[in-house]
Amino acid sequence: MRTLHAIFPAAAAATFGCLLTAPVAFAADGENTKLNLDNEAGKAAETASGASGGSIVRTIFGLAVVLGVIYGLHWVLKQVKKAKDSTDSGEALETIATLNLGTNRSLHLVRVGGEIVLLGAAEHQVTPIRRYSEAEAYSLGLLEPPSMTLASLEAEVEQPRGLMSVLRAKTVVK
């Protein structure tokens, strides 16, 4: 449903742009236009210069419509990509580290739920090499232990350091 709402403004802008250019295309006579071979070159020059002001405005307006259509399509494609990216990987998959070994070969450390998997990726295949539990990954040094816990944050807040911190602790309403 979101995609439909995202595509509608771009489609409306494209249709509007096509409708603006249709009268210009039908108004041109092409090869059937008669040539003005009279000696009234001055009148023809005045007429051409008077009509050029309108054509500049029409050209600028057409350019604005084209830029609007391009921006609309860019916006729609970004929305579609964002929706596709969020549904592809899900919340349980996370790439922790990647190591390139050579052309089209690499190692990937991926968190899948509560498990860490070492994957080998080649040109045409992906092979699981080893599985680790989170505790095992922390003990082997594959993952960094979380440095800040809730208890350490609370202890840091309770003990203000320095004059400014003491003043802030006493004046800020909690």
From TrEMBL:
Superkingdom classification of source: Bacteria
Signal peptide: 1-27
One GO location term (cellular component): bacterial-type flagellum basal body
Localization terms from the record: Bacterial flagellum basal body; Cell membrane
InterPro entries: Flagellar_biosynth_FliO (IPR022781), FliO/MopB (IPR052205)
PROSITE patterns: PROKAR_LIPOPROTEIN (PS51257)
GO biological process: bacterial-type flagellum organization
Main location: other
Membership in a protein family: Belongs to the FliO/MopB family.
Stored PANTHER family: FLAGELLAR PROTEIN FLIO
Name of the protein in question: Flagellar protein FliO/FliZ
Source species of the chain: Solirubrobacter pauli
